[in-house]
Amino acid sequence: MIVQLAGLPGTGKSTLAGELARELGPRTLLLDKDRIRHAIFGPHLVTYTRDQDDFCVRLMHQAAARHLREHPGAAVVLDGRTCSRRYQIEEVQHLATETGRPLRIIECVCPDRIAAHRLQQDLLAGTHPAADRGPDLHRRLKARAEPITLPALRLDTSAPLPECTRAAVHYLSTESALTTRPAPKGPTP
User: Fold this and answer.
1) What distance in Å separates the CA atoms of residue 147 and residue 40, rounded to the nearest whole number?
2) What pTM, to 2 d.p., does this model score?
């Protein structure tokens, strides 16, 4: 199975990705675009361009395909991409088709004020590898985001982490995850 975390900066993708990787078991590979970009380009050559992001995602997809070939029945959790552009979803859909594995998309959402608070906390702590990640990036990406049209779980991550993790694991374990898209809970202010 391929699990793609989607959502704007600060919506809890990375936190949930780590929990899901633990829940799905030791053969689960967690790939994070921001950490891969930082490992490849270091702090001085990171440009935060679309080209550099796409390059890192292609590397992630190659690693995912290899892992799934070598470990039938394993899962891959993909993190670090907003999936706010249609082509980003098409690329992960192509990976699923190429590997013959089911694709599950979990779109993390939360109120803007919560995302802004999380982003501010990360900036103060200096714990996130993406230095361009902040409330301004969140606003810019939100303004031009395209909706995800494939089946996906839209998960309000303002709920406690254990509750979000349970909902995500339940979604990943259901056959209907491939054919239905849960109705959004409503607008996220």
Assistant:
1) 30
2) 0.86
